[in-house]
């Protein structure tokens, strides 16, 4: 029932239509006229929302289904360099041991692409000689990646990241320097190989990892310094011990490091680490860093001032109010969220929020209106009304939690 409508919805990339077809009784394992299952079609299209709808179906979808080429959805995701889809399928229970027509399981397929290089492998498969078309895109999790197309075949540049993330699942742990070497070939630290590398190293939970990362702080190559700072930041961020084991050592290293660091990529990691540290010393450089020339550094610095703003610290409050006029919209939105932490009797913070209600960026207007609503200040109500219903597809759904459960929303005036 509803097989044709399901395939049509998958092909159109309409996740809501997919959900409706499944709710009406469509089989999530429906295949198209070529025998390709709906899940494989969604993987081919890099369509994570549709994949998630199929995986959440009341009738469980077969994660290890195969198409005519013998590829399971997981193997297709690996083949196409789709990091986030690979992760979702594995988390859902996809079989890591199944192989393609050449006998390669997921790890071996990822390693093949890593060693060959995406462009060379595209040329080998397609036989095309024209230039590869490359564009910068966002994946299903909003992360930056490169998409390469040649001869009718499109892949993304996530193969090395997938290899790095898969290796621990197969009991493989390459040395620190080898993993870092993979990442160093990519100067853009927003590309998939960087978070895959730093998160994999952080996940080893070994004292040697901290020492190796710390030793990178004096390297001449800023990408090596970035790797060290980011790994230490993540080790501290995900540390679950009750005694803040890494907070003090991180601040001891990051404070003098941040004072001399010139590369903006490294400064982002250092500022993020200081912003997330519980040691009060970490807050010392943050006001000055809100004026850094790199906007991501400014965003992280603002996020680290929440505690001081909540305490009513005059310098922190003045700093964040100034950030509400920053040239970057994300910095302004972050400043509004920080101002929302100020004591409710702070008229200065409320007035600063009200001053952002006419911002050219909708996200800034919403970030200003929400704390005003929670403070029972009606000046931002019109901004919230203009949004209409905020359902779980809205980018503001999570932010609306305090609005949704506030007394004014639960018991509106008659």
UniProtKB/TrEMBL annotation:
SMART domains: ANK (SM00248). InterPro entries: Ankyrin_rpt, Ankyrin_rpt-contain_sf, ARM-like, ARM-type_fold. Keywords: ANK repeat, Repeat. The keyword Oxidoreductase does not apply. The keyword Cell membrane does not apply. It holds the Pfam family HEAT_2. ANK repeats lie at residues 69-101. Signal peptide: none annotated. It comes from the Bacteria. This is Uncharacterized protein. It comes from Streptomyces syringium.
